[in-house]
From TrEMBL:
<keyword id="KW-0479">Metal-binding</keyword>
<dbReference type="InterPro" id="IPR002893">
    <property type="entry name" value="Znf_MYND"/>
</dbReference>
<keyword id="KW-0863">Zinc-finger</keyword>
<keyword id="KW-0862">Zinc</keyword>
<protein>
    <recommendedName>
        <fullName>MYND-type domain-containing protein</fullName>
    </recommendedName>
</protein>
<dbReference type="GO" id="GO:0008270">
    <property type="term" value="F:zinc ion binding"/>
</dbReference>
<dbReference type="Pfam" id="PF01753">
    <property type="entry name" value="zf-MYND"/>
</dbReference>
<feature type="domain" description="MYND-type">
    <location>
        <begin position="10"/>
        <end position="56"/>
    </location>
</feature>
Length: 381
């Protein structure tokens, strides 16, 4: 029973109720708090189904959307930690700011390929999980929209009927992250990339913000009206061109440019595909789907969710481990004067079976991994 209403009435006969509808119970709020539906018996619940059906299905879908948002956000955090591209040696909070002190980066002359743009995330600089989330997502909203696109496209279509990518300017940030380089502070007020979605069979619109932690916005799913009223200072008009998938297309195009940022996009494009591989591998192992996972009871959902995230992390970390090892091969070739254009373009990816097994994958997984990775890297040669 709901502690705020210890004696609710049956929705069908108005007698004293004894249980709530388990399907839509405790659904997240939209613009106003959701009300639980109670019954005095299973017969009354059956008799009331035609009346309750529409509301129940909407609330169930809403619950699943919020779960999906939490899952996608956590996967994005795992991904960002594996492909982290910044060097922070100290984090301090002062005058309402979170100051991120940059360390030294290798000189450009020593950056032989895209693999040199990955820097291990140093967990010692923060102890608070929320601080860690803020740092992982700092200036990474474009990555969230682009490199999580395929996974979002796989998870959300059963729950949402419309999708739109948006760029907005943020207001009322609850955290203010500031980069500090050689003692000088550098504030950022860049456009923030988010996704707007419409819940299926309803008029409810939501914002999906997987990188909002950099502003102190830790909820990945927020009703659109609430989000825009509280956090959006202005919209950046793209003249109707903000279609679902645009962010990924733009960064893929940028990856073809012969600059370090282009190489970073190229590397993310390849590695991010193993987010889906981790999900597909988990689904095959458990004879289940993400959609089925989202509909489980809370305890079972949390248990299986942890396993899914661990599996995704396994695949991504194995991929990153291998490409970093190949970066060392490139450096050795450069030092010996034995490097060619193919090495530079492909980033030196020559994946070995033992390398991937060391990353935690079994022999069958390794074979599939090598074949798929070599195919993807050939697209960039």
């Amino acid at each position: 029973m709901d502690g705020t209403n210890p004696a609710p009435a049956c929705a069908h006969c108005s007698n004293l109720a004894v249980h709530a509808c388990s399907v839509c119970n405790n659904a997240p709020a939209y613009e106003i708090p959701s009300k639980n539906t109670y019954y005095c018996s299973t017969q009354c619940q059956k008799d009331d189904w035609l009346t309750h059906k529409a509301v129940c299905k909407t609330l169930k879908t809403r619950k699943m959307l919020f779960r999906a948002g939490e899952l996608l956000q956590e996967i994005f955090y795992v991904y960002r930690e594996q492909v982290f591209d910044k060097v922070f040696v100290k984090v301090e909070k002062r005058d309402g700011k979170m100051l991120l002190h940059q360390g030294e980066y290798p000189p450009l002359s020593k950056m032989s390929n895209a693999l040199d743009l990955l820097f291990p995330f140093d967990p010692s600089v923060v102890s608070d999980p929320l601080d860690k989330a803020s740092i992982l997502t700092y200036m990474a909203c474009g990555d969230a929209v682009a490199w999580m696109h395929d996974l979002v496209k796989y998870v959300l279509p059963d729950l949402c009927s419309k999708f739109k990518e948006m760029r907005v300017m943020i207001q009322n940030r609850e955290r203010h992250l500031v980069m500090v380089t050689e003692g000088e502070e550098h504030s950022s007020d860049q456009p923030h990339c988010i996704l707007k979605v419409k819940l299926k069979n309803s008029d409810e619109w939501y914002i999906v913000d997987l990188a909002g932690a950099q502003y102190g916005f830790f909820e990945p799913i927020v009703p659109a009206v609430m989000y825009e009223k509280s956090y959006v200072r202005s919209h950046i008009d793209s003249h109707g061109a903000e279609y679902f998938g645009q962010g990924k297309e733009v960064l893929i195009q940028f990856s073809q440019m012969p600059v370090l940022a282009g190489n970073s996009c190229k590397l993310n494009h390849v590695i991010s595909e193993y987010l889906m591989k981790g999900v597909e591998d988990w689904e095959a192992e458990h004879a289940s789907t993400i959609q089925g996972l989202l509909g489980l009871k809370e305890k079972e959902f949390q248990e299986r969710r942890a396993g899914l995230i661990a599996n995704v992390e396994k695949w991504v970390s194995s991929c990153v481990k291998v490409v970093k090892q190949q970066g060392e091969v490139i450096r050795a070739k450069m030092a010996a004067g034995a490097i060619d254009d193919k090495d530079l373009v492909a980033g030196g990816i020559a994946i070995g079976m033992d390398d991937l097994k060391g990353g935690g994958l079994n022999a069958e997984d390794v074979e599939a991994f090598v074949k798929a990775f070599e195919t993807r890297m050939s697209d960039f040669q």
